[in-house]
Specification:
Layout: E1 2-11, H1 12-22, H2 24-30, H3 33-40, H4 45-63, E2 76-80, E3 86-90, H5 92-100, E4 105-112, E5 116-124
Antiparallel strand pairs: 1-5, 2-3, 4-5
This protein binds coenzyme A.
């Protein structure tokens, strides 16, 4: 049974400007060490950060709650497998919510162009 679906679209320029302004302060608040390592090894890191930001917002939409309601963005992590396929790994409040809601599986897809990054999250109960 489908629990929820969420979608988000990010303007990569906006993320790039935030990173230029706040650098580590922003990155460490929003992204895991593994996400920072993954994005920073790409020439256009801000596009990959944008994609992960879109995933986090799409996840919040899929579970149906907003930020500041016990889930932090850093607790929602994108991990790329050998083939590049992204999966979700959850920690803390995000993991607790997931378990308490009885959600079994999270499906995730990402796409990006130079200008935009988008993500879709589907949760199955
Ligand atoms: C996987 C594939 C479909 C991704 O297509 P793409 O247009 O380059 O990807 P997009 O720019 O839309 O999206 C990139 C995201 O796809 C995701 N992705 C990468 N490999 C993936 C895979 N094997 N399965 C699912 N998602 C994947 C990643 O999340 C990536 O973003 P990230 O690096 O920031 O995590 C493509 O790389 C591929 O292997 N295509 C197979 C067909 C082919 O080889 N065609 C070439 C001849 S025309």
């Amino acid at each position: 049974m489908i629990y929820g679906v969420g979608i988000d679209l990010v303007e990569n320029d906006r993320i790039e400007k935030i990173i230029q302004k706040w650098d580590e302060k922003f990155l460490c608040r929003v992204f895991s060490d593994r996400e920072i390592e993954y994005c920073s090894r790409h020439a256009q890191a801000h596009i990959h950060y944008g994609a992960r930001f879109a995933v986090k917002e799409a996840f919040l939409k899929a579970i149906g709650i907003g930020l500041g309601r016990g889930v932090k963005l850093r607790e929602i992590e994108v991990v790329n497998g050998q083939s590049g396929k992204p999966t979700l790994k959850l920690y803390g409040g995000a993991k607790d919510f997931f378990q308490q809601a009885g959600i079994q599986t999270a499906y995730l897809s990402i796409t990006h162009t130079k200008k935009y990054a988008s993500a879709l999250v589907l949760l199955e109960k």
